[in-house]
Amino acid sequence: MSNMNEVSKKNHEDEIAIKEVIITVKEWFNFLISKWKIIFLAGIIGALVGLAYSFSREPVYTASLSFALEDEKSGSGGIGGALGLASTLGLDIGGGAGGVFTGANLAELFKSRSMVEQTLLTPVSIDGKTISLAEMYIEDSGWRESWEKEPNLRNIKFLPNSDRKGFTRVHDSILGAIYKNLSKALVVGQKDKKIAIISIDVLSSNELFSKYFCEALATKVSQFYVETKSKKSTENMLILKRQTDSIRRELNGAINGVAVANDNNFNLNPALNVRRAPSARRQVDVQANTAILTELIKQSELAKVTVRRETPLIQVIDRPILPLPKEKFGKLKGIVVGGFLAGLLTVIYLVFRRLVKLILK
Question: Is the pLDDT of residue 218 over 80?
Answer without folding.
Answer: yes
